[in-house]
Amino acid sequence: QVQLVESGGGLVQPGGSLRLSCAASGSSLGYYTIGWFRQAPGKEREAVSCISTSDISSTYYADSVKGRFTISRDIAKNTFYLQMDSLKAEDTAVYYCAAEWITTVQAMCAPHRVKPDYWGQGTQVTVSS
């Protein structure tokens, strides 16, 4: 069992920045891959970025956020972050932290797949002037 709690969402102007946090707890966290997903109104949930818990160099970014978002982790705190810079109106969505058992970042973040084992409650990000 894994518990995920997101924080850090809010309202920001276009071009601004936000940092989302995901506090993870539970057993065998080292066997999970962690990802950030988002869902805008009327759209399907999509993968944003994923990171391996065993190899910090193993990350994946959706093309829409590459170069603007950065995923990272503080393993001592079991906390994962999504730094979002140069935000655009189209980044507006509910952002979810997710965990998937023994998988690669490429598989977890594959487009249209969306099959994590555990989800957080989500945090709203609104980009608007």
Which properties best describe this structure?
single chain; mainly beta; seven-stranded mixed β-sheet
Description:
The protein has 129 residues and is mainly β. The protein is built from 1 helix and 11 strands; from the N terminus they run βββββββββαββ. Strands 2, 4, 5, 6, 9, 10 and 11 form a 7-stranded mixed β-sheet that branches. Strands 1-3-8-7 form a 4-stranded antiparallel β-sheet, with no helix packed on it. A hairpin with a 4-residue loop joins strand 7 and strand 8. The longest helix has 4 residues, at 105-108. It is globular. The model has no long low-confidence stretch (mean pLDDT 94).
A few lines on this structure:
The protein is mostly beta strands and 129 residues long. It contains one helix and eleven strands.
Q: What is this structure's SSE topology?
A:
Layout: E1 2-7, E2 10-12, E3 18-26, E4 32-39, E5 46-52, E6 59-61, E7 69-74, E8 79-84, E9 93-101, H1 105-108, E10 118-119, E11 123-127
Parallel strand pairs: 2-11
Antiparallel strand pairs: 1-3, 3-8, 4-5, 4-9, 5-6, 7-8, 9-10, 9-11
Describe the main β-sheet briefly: 7 strands, mixed
- Kindly state the percentage of residues in helix: under 10%
Morphology: globular
The oligomerization state is single chain
Q: CA-to-CA gap between the ends?
A: 40 Å
Number of helices, where a helix is a run of at least 4 consecutive DSSP H or I residues: 1
Q: Mean pLDDT, rounded to whole units?
A: 94
